[in-house]
């Protein structure tokens, strides 16, 4: 049994009602639900929420909301893994036995059904606990700077100043879209970012974590640019 769990709590403070805010004509959560459905990977698509309005939107989108998330898992401090583990335990209490569970973020409008499928294939054919998408940093992280209390700047690793960019190891960051995992890994609360995971590299232009208004605006710019590129490609065909 394969299950998608979409965490969508109602108490977002930096962006009000972030999980159901309209994004290009539909609640942003719709992009996640639709990608999950289009992937054909899941027996059930479940939204985990503590909020009645989010639950109503989720059901209208065709997702299940079979339980209300407990208050202690709906705070600002609540982590992703316990939320997914709660959903798995609920399913087990109903007599279900999920084997693979994919946590899909509700604010992931660039999520791709193809990426979900590819990651599931890797998880199925390997012994790892998790598979998740990543993108490379646009600049070498080894050249990162900090701003001191005095207002001046310094490198975190000044000894690398003389190194050429091509001599520095490429680094990657979480795409903040989805995490495919074995059910036992979620229940054991194994760390996702570890050597027991496989990162799936996706293009930078399809990655934007959304936590602030600036993030949201950047996501809109990227999405609009992608739409224009697709339109242009279509006219050239």
Question: How would you portray this structure in words?
Answer:
The protein is 32% helix and 18% strand. The chain has six helices and nine strands, in the order βαβααβαβββββαβα. It has helices at residues 28-39, 52-60, 80-93, 113-124, 183-187, 213-236, and strands at 2-7, 44-48, 100-104, 130-136, 145-147, 153-155, 172-174, 178-182, 197-201. The strands form two sheets. Strands 1, 2, 3, 4, 7, 8 and 9 form a seven-stranded mixed beta sheet that branches. Helix 1 links the parallel strand 1 and strand 2 (44-48). Helix 1 crosses helix 4 (113-124). It starts with a strand and ends with a helix.
Radius of gyration: 19 Å
Strand content: 15-25%
First-residue to last-residue Cα separation: 41 Å
Number of DSSP E strands: 9
Summarize the structure.
By secondary structure, the chain is an alpha/beta fold. The protein is 32% helix and 18% strand.
Q: What are the key terms here?
A:
237 residues; alpha/beta; 6 helices
